[in-house]
Amino acid sequence: LAFELDDYYRELISHRNLAAARQYYSSQSAAVDRIEEIAAIEGIDCDFVRVDGFLVPAGDDDVADLRKELDAATQAGFTDAEWMEQGPGPWAPRPAIRFPRQARFHPLKYLYGLLAVLTARGVQVFGSTPVVGLD
Length: 135
Hints:
This protein is an alpha+beta fold. The chain contains 4 helices and 3 strands, in the order ααβαββα. Helix 1 packs across helix 2 (18-42). The longest helix is centred in the N-terminal third of the chain and has 25 residues, at 18-42. The chain is elongated, with a radius of gyration of 19 Å. The two termini are 36 Å apart. The mean pLDDT is 95.
């Protein structure tokens, strides 16, 4: 679960605008927060854990673009993203951007837990059922 943008905040700002990038950041980070909240409140054991995400340059020529990406991400609202002079693990000694508060979970455990909560509350869930109209 990530609100770091693999397609780059700077590209989103360039192709859309800063408001769109801020909206993306806000909506995606809120979605991850909401999944965490639901799992905690409902006691859904889905292995949810917060993790850092890292963006590293493909080569030495990409370091300048990485700095531009940090600036764009910060403008979009990712104010706690940070520059690291040396990325972790196999990316060392190249720099990296650390994006905190990303998450990892088991999606099927989450969905089955959600289904159990809903059915316990009397919600009927139907699979393989096309919707042909609404009244």
